[in-house]
Amino acid sequence: MMRRVLEWGIGLAVLGGMLAMYRLHGGEALWFMMFLTCLVLAGGMLVQLLGPRQIRVERSLPRSVIPSGEAVPVTLRIHFRSPLPLPWMAVEDYYTGGSFRRVLFPGFRRSLTYRYEIPAPPRGHYGFEACALEWGGLFGWFQGRKVVRGEGRFIVLPEPLPVGQECRPAASPSYSEEASLRPPRFADGMKGMEVREYVPGDPPNRIHWKHLARWGRLHTSLPEEAQQSSYAVMIDRSFSGYMPDGARAGDVSGEAAQRGFETAVSTAAGLLVEAGRAGEKPVLLGSGLRAGLRGEAGVPGGPGPALRQETGPEITGMLAALSGLKLSGGMPLPAQLQEAAGDIKGKRTAVVTGYLTDELLRTVSGIISSGGYVDIYCAGAAAGTDSSDSASYAAAVHDPGLFRRAALLSRLGAGVFIVHGGRVSRVGHVESNFPGEGAV
């Protein structure tokens, strides 16, 4: 409003000055200049009074779930009504974290369409906040402005860290060895199509008698619920989880903790994707994640054919929940593990955090002793070095006790993994060149 008053004030002041000069000196040149000024003022009045009305802005995206590293193409359509031709129209579309501006020349058109791209945004949840439209006369004077509320949103998934099969909890030697010594447990579901060799302790009602008659050997039918293994993935969201053991809050900058947390999110995403490829059924655990999973599992649009074939809708919903996670000062990881002890009991669990602390060691040891299976992924020092050498990682961690704790957990059957140099390495599989106490 102030801008419009200023424009009209300047225009009327110019016209008044020319009129005063004309009355004092006269002349055809001043008369012509006054005539042009009146035309400009009349055109500005018409543009502001009869400018675009009933403006409608529509946005469309090929899909609303975007894999990490891809640009987001947005198609913008503008519909309006106006009895006058518009020389120009400036459109600025605001979205979360930025905006895009373009100048159009509608003329007599009342429907405009153009496309722009948001260049490879980082993971997160994005929304279109508003669309600001400006128009005016031929020389850009006496502008009109309208802000249309934005609609629509899209999700950028985190980039999954390449996680090899040897780093997944399902491939941990402790699980396979203990599973071979433990008699199988059956669910109460219906018999499935898959069978395996009979193991002493199998229920008699699960014996496949037709196989016995045909092959002369006992086989056991697997129930449908047992045909797909599952494990849980829990990510630490607390700021304390990305500080080395014994460090104070002031010793670790927020930027360093944020880098470690971003690596932890990518590691959790990699575990979920690898589980989908292996035919397992992962479960994402964490404070505030379940509500996010319920809200994001049905995100329309989908992630595209390539990613959909690799993950499936369930894992895509978990990746969407991971994309909105933020580092906070909430409940520490040991307390989260104790709270979720009922959900992870008897289930293979991958815990992604920054550092393996003494408190976390005690909590995980208690869970393992009560029948749990836990693997720890340490991503806190991932940004401290670009080298995959173990000595460089140990120097970045500044915590030689990490390897002592890892050795203790390895004796209990848990796996400890470090994320550094864009790779995931198991501490128990690394040569003894790790410096410090308790190197394994």
UniProtKB/TrEMBL annotation:
Keyword tags: Membrane, Transmembrane, Transmembrane helix
Instruction: State which residue ranges cross the membrane.
Output: 5-24, 30-51
Would the keyword Membrane be found if you checked this record's keyword annotation?
Answer: yes
Alphabetized PANTHER family for the sequence:
DUF58 DOMAIN-CONTAINING PROTEIN, SLR1927 PROTEIN-RELATED
Q: What is this protein called?
A: DUF58 domain-containing protein
Q: Which organism is it from?
A: Paenibacillus rhizosphaerae
